[in-house]
Amino acid sequence: MLTERGPVTATAGKASQATVTLAEVAAVAGVPVPETGERLSDEQLVVVLRHLRYREDPPLSYRQAVAAFREAGFVGGEERIRRTWGELMSRDDATEAEKAAEDSETSHTNDDANADEEDEEEAGPRS
Q1: Any bridge partners for residue 95, and if so which?
Q2: Which 3 state secondary structure label does DSSP give 9?
Q3: Between 68 and which of 10, 57, 88, 119 could a Cys-Cys bridge form, CB atoms 3.0 to 4.6 Å apart?
């Protein structure tokens, strides 16, 4: 059973050492803490699925997350959960792609700066 003070527990995978509670994820998302046995808003469903996916290392698969969702006592239709899961994965993929692009851009910027410094060193002092 879920309380505002504690995380939902699961049996799959190993719990992350820095486990974030469902209440903390909800607070960051700005939504009321999802309660088991009650219909969840779309935002609460995203919070629960994100929490279930990433509280374990490695992250849970869709099937593992749905099993943990049901085991914890949350209520939601299969189609709604599947659609929300897909949206969550799409957002996460987009975020990872943005991070990779930023890292690549930073790397290229550093490479360009290093190349400029090397060019200046080879050119010698300016008069």
Answers
A1: none
A2: coil
A3: 10
Place of tokens 């009650």: 38
Model pTM score: 0.65
Contacts of 106 (CB under 8 A, 6+ apart): none
User: CA quadruple 13, 18, 21, 24: dihedral positive or negative?
Assistant: negative
Among 34, 43, 44, smallest CA distance to 72 is for: 34
- The residues, ordered by sequence, that sit 6+ positions from 61 with a Cβ below 8 Å of its Cβ are none
User: How far is the C-alpha of 107 from the C-alpha of 91, rounded, in Å?
Assistant: 24
pLDDT tens digits for range 24-78: 999 999 999 999 999 999 999 999 999 999 888 889 999 999 999 999 999 999 9
